[in-house]
From TrEMBL, chain A:
Domain (Small ribosomal subunit protein uS7): residue spans on this chain: 107-271
Family matches, as Pfam families: Ribosomal_S7
Name of this chain's protein: Small ribosomal subunit protein uS7m
Positions of region (Disordered): 24-56
Protein keywords: Mitochondrion, Ribonucleoprotein, Ribosomal protein
Organism: Chaetomium strumarium
Source organism phylogeny: Eukaryota, Fungi, Dikarya, Ascomycota, Pezizomycotina
Automatic annotation (TrEMBL), chain B:
Keyword Glycoprotein attributed: no
Ranges of biased composition (kind: Low complexity): 15-32
The family this protein is said to belong to: Belongs to the mitochondrion-specific ribosomal protein mS29 family.
Protein's UniProt name: Small ribosomal subunit protein mS29
PANTHER family according to UniProt: MITOCHONDRIAL 28S RIBOSOMAL PROTEIN S29, SMALL RIBOSOMAL SUBUNIT PROTEIN MS29
Composition-biased stretches (Basic residues): 61-76
Region of interest: Disordered: 15-90
Principal location: mitochondrion
Compartments reported by the entry: Mitochondrion
């Protein structure tokens, strides 16, 4: 049985003494002189009272030890006296100062990369080889940096607020994120079994969260990439195919845009199902 | 006759129709008309092919025609690839292509071109300098650029001048001034810039109008990937590599076109397919090699002309360099007619290089023989490792010079003879000042999106194992965190 954790159990340890503690006897001076076995010079300890006759005490005070550090310490003591904080923790004792708080997310080992990049890298991963996926991602970003600026297609608009095309290669993370977010679908179709009558399922459009939208979009991109033929050989093959598809998405040439349109059309035609009596309270 | 037997008479005779014979009749032999010969086949596959109706086994004799409903998982047949397959060598060319410029990168305003003594000047230490256009073409022709280096990220190919590079250029320059031949091996850890050091030496040579002969990969000579043939009248037999030498001759010609046109032959070469008379430009001599068959004699003639002593007034200094030294310091993968492996030093081109590195050949106007080791792709060569360690210890005047392991048999005397008196430069990380110059260049090009201050420099320098250049690139340029 576990001991009870309440206040009463603590009282068991309480005891009341009616008398004061007996004073321990002070060890005599001879006992205090015991030194190490090899220390032959142990003598009586210097006691403040009457170790030396007053005639033998020095007249003047010994010279204060002065040095640069001592001066600094004295200054700090004076500052404390005036109620000031003598130490600036961001300067004192740190070669590069203290980090600013709260820590920026990049300083955290698990959030050191951009959120989109982290998610997409894990989608690139096969057989649990994260390091390879990260190298592939680095190569994708490098390809985006070195490829010529994309020629945008006004029929396939990117997200509003996107920077001009010639800015994109210099910020490949933005480039990749923009491509993925622009083709990401807003909804998915969810089927409720047997509600449409005749054993058919009732298709109802459901909104997606940002992370889900990105995942869907990148899976579509990967589907296209896996059907592409690679040009070169070696370790650049896969990342270059992915990067070419990203450029194709931004330029509006990719078939991923059609998939997005298809999903959105299905959502529009089925939006009446949102008020179906069978799914009331289920969404 | 009973009714069921009558009806059976109307059925088409078939092998698998069960016969409702009385049980007592079952052990007896089957009727002759229904008996089937034992299948004769060599393999299980053929056996199955013989009677397609047997598949279902047992009583099912009928096979449904047309589409079948497939239940369960079936292996998909491999999809035939559409379009024509890539031509031989096309994929490799795509992998190995070298891009020297990135139009997206911001041009750096303060970047200056390297002058003739730019790499030998100590004032340029920890500065980034650009390669002039002409030198770029020459370096490209001599295959000094490598696809793994980050040339394709910046507007112009540029170099960081290190302390070691100034040291090396000064050593080369001194030996050229004294008409001597510098023999030197560049070694160091992975990605510390050994190949880049060779490139800098070549750039220095091109800027000063020297002749450069560069073997970009020692591996290509000894891994039996190019043709070889014995050279007649040699004892012990030497081997030439005609296809490779033709390629090398063409790259020498393209890289050194100007200077070869101004240098003339001293003797005639009647043995060549194209008769070369004295006072012909060496460029014409290079052009005499049109086919692999004539490549080796032409190369030998060119080499003899370049190293001819005597009235050596107008011979330019020569830089001979090779990357991947360990590959030429071992027994090659080629086989002799007796099916014994040929030592690399019996290959004529390699021997020419090792003789020069060993000090047997002196260039008339001075020059340098440089070799760089490789750490990523290098076979073990115990003699080379030992010799380099010994030379290094001797140069540093250390008391303990590494000695041979008396219980190890893998040493190679020919390798040791070559490396007996070479100089060694060991590369390590760069200093923080050099790292800072490099990072400022990256940031000015728009490739590093960060403030370059002491903190950032120290961070990358430390991450890169005390400033190993390749690791700094990995930490700052080739990362997911841009």
């Amino acid at each position: 049985m576990p001991p009870r954790l309440n206040i009463w159990s603590a009282y068991r340890a309480l005891s009341v003494r009616t008398r004061a503690f007996a004073q321990a006897t002070q060890p005599g001076p001879a006992a205090q002189t015991r030194g190490l076995a090899d220390n032959t010079t142990s003598r009586f300890p210097p006691s403040a009272s009457g170790a030396l006759p007053p005639s033998m005490l020095p007249e003047s005070e010994p010279l204060a030890y002065t040095s640069k550090e001592n001066e600094a310490a004295l200054n700090q003591l004076r500052m404390i006296e005036y109620g000031l904080s003598p130490l600036d923790p961001s300067v004192e004792g740190h070669k590069y100062g203290l980090p600013e708080l709260p820590l920026p997310s990049q300083k955290h080992a698990k959030h050191r990369y951009d959120a989109v990049i982290t998610q997409v890298t894990k989608l690139l991963m096969r057989d649990g080889k994260l390091a390879k996926a990260q190298r592939d991602m680095a190569m994708i970003l490098n390809y985006l940096r070195t490829s010529p600026p994309p020629k945008l297609d006004p029929a396939k608009p990117l997200l509003p607020g996107a920077p001009p095309a010639h800015h994109l290669p210099l910020d490949p993370v933005l480039y990749l994120g923009l491509a993925i977010d622009s083709v990401a679908p807003l909804i998915r179709m969810r089927g409720f079994k047997g509600l449409a009558g005749g054993g058919k399922s009732l298709e109802v459009p459901m909104p997606l969260r940002a992370r889900q939208r990105r995942r869907t979009a990148f899976q579509w991109i990967l589907d296209v990439v896996n059907k592409r033929k690679s040009k070169g050989s070696g370790r650049n093959m896969f990342p270059h195919r992915v990067a070419e598809e990203i450029v194709a998405v931004v330029e509006g040439r990719s078939t991923v845009w059609d998939k997005r349109l298809q999903v959105h059309k299905a959502g529009t035609s089925n939006r009446a199902n949102l008020t179906h009596s069978g799914i009331k309270g289920m969404i | 006759m009973s009714a069921p037997n009558c009806l059976r008479g109307l059925v088409r005779p078939s092998a698998t129709i069960p016969i409702s014979a009385p049980r007592s009749a079952a052990p007896r032999a089957a009727p002759i008309g229904l008996a089937r010969p034992a299948p004769f086949s060599t393999t299980a596959l053929n056996a199955r092919r013989q009677d397609p109706n047997q598949q279902g086994g047992g009583g099912k004799g009928h096979v449904r025609q047309g589409k079948k409903l497939k239940l369960g998982k079936f292996k998909k047949t491999a999809v035939e690839s559409k379009g024509k397959p890539p031509l031989p060598g096309e994929r490799r060319a795509y992998r190995k292509r070298i891009t020297l410029s990135n139009d997206n990168a911001i041009p750096v305003p303060w970047l200056k071109d390297i002058g003739a003594d730019g790499l030998a000047n100590a004032q340029n230490i920890a500065r980034v300098l650009a390669l002039p256009e002409e030198v770029q073409d020459q370096l490209r022709a001599s295959e000094a650029f490598k696809p793994t280096q980050c040339w394709g990220m910046f507007r112009k190919p540029s170099l960081l001048v290190r302390k070691e590079s100034v040291d090396l250029m000064n050593r080369i320059q001194t030996s050229v001034d004294n008409k001597q031949t510098l023999r030197l091996v560049v070694t160091g850890d992975k990605v510390t810039g050994k190949s880049m050091m060779l490139l800098q030496a070549q750039a220095h040579a091109f800027l000063n109008n020297w002749i450069v002969i560069h073997v970009p990969e020692g591996q290509e000579l000894t891994t039996a990937c190019t043709e070889y043939a014995p050279i007649p009248n040699t004892d012990p037999v030497q081997y030439m590599q005609p296809v490779y030498i033709l390629k090398l001759l063409q790259s020498i010609k393209r890289a050194n076109e100007k200077i070869l046109a101004k240098t003339y032959t001293m003797t005639g070469h009647p043995e060549l397919p194209q008769n070369i008379t004295p006072n012909t430009p060496l460029l014409a001599l290079c052009n005499a090699a049109k086919e692999p068959d004539s490549a080796w004699p032409v190369f030998q003639a060119l080499w003899n002309e370049l190293t001819a002593h005597g009235t050596a007034a107008n011979r330019p200094p020569i830089l001979l360099s090779l990357d991947g030294l360990a590959h030429v310091m071992r027994v090659s993968d080629y086989r002799s007619p007796a099916f014994e492996r040929i030592h690399s030093h019996d290959l004529a081109l390699v021997r020419l290089f090792t003789d020069t590195l060993g000090g047997a050949v002196q260039f008339p106007a001075g020059g340098a023989v440089l070799a760089a080791t490789s750490r990523n792709n290098a076979p073990r060569s115990p003699s080379m490792e030992l010799s380099l360690a010994q030379r290094e210890a001797e140069q540093a005047k250390r008391e303990e010079v590494p000695q041979k392991d008396p219980f190890f048999r893998g040493y190679d005397d020919r390798v040791e003879a070559v490396l007996r008196s070479v100089q060694v430069i060991r590369l390590g990380g760069v200093s923080k000042l050099e790292a800072r110059a490099l990072m400022e260049y990256w940031a000015a090009s728009g490739m590093l999106r960060a403030t370059v201050d002491e903190k950032a420099v120290t961070e990358k320098w430390t991450l890169a194992g005390s400033g190993v250049l390749g690791e700094m690139e990995r930490a700052a340029l080739l990362t997911m965190r841009i």
